[in-house]
C-alpha cells in the first residue's frame, strides 16, 4: 500500500484550447493507488521547438500518434494538454520516493498522479531549478549515441539552442576533440564562452569534420552541415521540420564524399544502446549529466505558472529563446 496518501484534490493544468491560444483548466485528481505517486510541481520548462509546433497547431496529421507525450490528454491539434519537462516533489506514494524531488515527462500542471515507475529521482548535485533541462539532455544524449563521436574527432554543432549547446558541451569533454558551436546569432558567443566552447558564425566554421550535428531547425543550417562534413563523415539531423518541406544540395560533392545523413529522434532509444539501455536508464543518465552549474546559462527566463497562457503565446512567437522555466507556488 502507498504511504502518505492524500485525499481527492483539485489542480490546475495548462491546455492548448485552439492553435495559438491556451488556458488553465481546473481538474480533479484521485488519490494515488498502489505503485503510484502524487507529485506537486516545483518547476516545468517550455521545450521551445516542439511546443511551438504544438501550440500553433502545426503537427502534421501523419504524426499525431507518434508525437503524443506520455501523459498528454486531448488530441492534436486542440484542445490538448501537452508538455514533458516537469520537476516536483513526491507528496504521496511509496516510502522510498516520499519527499523526493523527481523529474517526470508530464505536461504543465500544479499537481499530478502518475505511476511511480514514471518518475526519476534527482541525483545529488542537481537542483530542481536545473533539472527542468532533463528532457533536453536526454535528447542530446540519445543524439550522441546515434552520432558516436570518437576521441580526437573534429565535430561541428550547428544551432546553439538548448539541445545543440548541450551536445557541444558533452562532445567538448572528449579528449583531443575539436568542437565548434555554430550559430547565426552572435549573441550566442557569450553562451558558448560560459561553457568553454569555441563559437563560430557559419561562414567561419572549420570544414573537413568527422561528425556534424545539425540542430538549428533551418534549411540553411542543414545545407551548411553538408558542406562542413569531410569525406565519409556523418551528419546527424536533430531538428524536426514538422510539415515544412526543405531543399538540400544533394548534388555537388554529396555522393563523391560518401556522406551519411541520419535522423535522430528521442522517442526511440538509439539502436547503438537499445540492447543495454531502457528509457528509465537513459533519463537517469541524462539527469546525472546536469551536475554542472554552468548549464544554468541555458535557462534564459522564468515566469509564474499562473501567467503561462500569455507566456506561451509570447515565447512561441519570439525567435532565439533558450529554456524558459515555469515556477509554481512552493507552498503545499
From TrEMBL:
UniProt cross-references to InterPro entries, sorted A to Z: GroES-like_sf, NAD(P)-bd_dom_sf
Keywords recorded for this protein, A-Z: Metal-binding, Oxidoreductase, Zinc
Record Gene3D superfamilies: Medium-chain alcohol dehydrogenases, catalytic domain, NAD(P)-binding Rossmann-like Domain
Record CDD domains: 2-desacetyl-2-hydroxyethyl_bacteriochlorophyllide_like (cd08255)
Superkingdom: Bacteria
Signal peptide boundaries: none
Cofactor(s) named in the record: Zn(2+)
Family: Belongs to the zinc-containing alcohol dehydrogenase family.
Classification via PANTHER family: D-GULOSIDE 3-DEHYDROGENASE (PTHR43350:SF19), NAD-DEPENDENT ALCOHOL DEHYDROGENASE (PTHR43350)
Name assigned to this protein: Zinc-binding alcohol dehydrogenase
Source species of the chain: Kushneria aurantia
Amino acid at each position: 500500500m502507498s504511504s502518505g496518501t492524500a485525499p481527492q484534490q483539485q489542480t490546475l493544468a495548462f491546455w492548448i484550447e485552439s492553435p495559438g491560444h491556451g488556458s488553465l483548466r481546473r481538474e480533479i485528481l484521485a488519490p494515488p493507488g498502489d505503485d503510484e505517486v502524487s507529485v506537486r510541481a516545483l518547476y516545468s520548462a517550455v521545450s521551445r521547438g516542439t511546443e511551438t509546433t504544438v501550440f500553433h497547431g502545426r503537427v502534421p496529421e501523419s504524426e499525431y500518434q507518434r508525437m503524443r507525450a506520455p501523459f498528454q490528454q486531448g488530441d492534436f491539434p486542440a484542445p490538448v494538454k501537452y508538455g514533458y519537462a516537469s520537476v516536483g516533489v513526491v507528496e504521496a506514494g511509496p516510502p522510498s520516493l516520499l519527499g523526493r524531488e523527481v523529474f517526470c515527462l508530464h505536461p504543465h500542471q500544479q499537481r499530478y498522479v502518475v505511476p511511480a515507475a514514471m518518475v526519476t529521482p534527482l541525483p545529488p548535485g542537481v537542483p530542481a531549478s536545473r533539472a527542468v533541462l532533463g528532457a533536453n539532455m536526454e535528447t542530446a544524449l540519445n543524439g550522441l549515441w546515434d552520432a558516436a563521436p570518437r576521441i580526437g574527432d573534429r565535430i561541428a554543432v550547428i544551432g546553439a539552442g538548448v539541445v545543440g549547446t548541450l551536445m557541444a558541451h558533452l562532445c567538448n569533454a572528449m579528449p583531443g576533440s575539436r568542437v565548434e558551436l555554430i550559430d547565426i546569432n552572435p549573441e550566442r558567443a557569450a553562451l558558448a564562452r560560459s561553457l568553454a566552447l569555441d563559437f563560430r558564425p557559419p561562414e567561419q566554421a572549420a570544414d573537413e569534420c568527422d561528425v556534424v550535428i545539425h540542430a538549428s531547425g533551418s534549411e540553411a543550417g542543414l545545407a551548411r552541415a553538408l558542406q562542413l562534413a569531410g569525406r565519409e563523415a556523418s551528419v546527424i539531423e536533430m531538428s524536426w521540420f514538422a510539415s515544412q518541406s526543405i531543399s538540400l544540395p544533394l548534388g555537388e560533392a554529396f555522393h563523391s564524399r560518401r556522406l551519411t545523413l541520419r535522423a535522430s529522434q528521442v522517442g526511440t532509444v538509439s539502436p547503438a544502446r537499445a540492447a543495454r539501455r531502457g528509457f528509465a536508464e537513459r533519463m537517469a543518465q541524462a539527469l546525472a549529466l546536469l551536475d554542472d552549474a554552468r548549464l544554468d546559462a541555458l535557462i534564459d527566463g522564468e515566469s509564474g505558472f499562473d501567467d503561462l497562457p500569455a507566456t506561451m503565446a509570447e515565447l512561441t512567437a519570439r525567435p532565439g529563446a533558450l529554456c524558459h522555466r515555469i515556477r509554481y507556488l512552493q507552498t503545499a
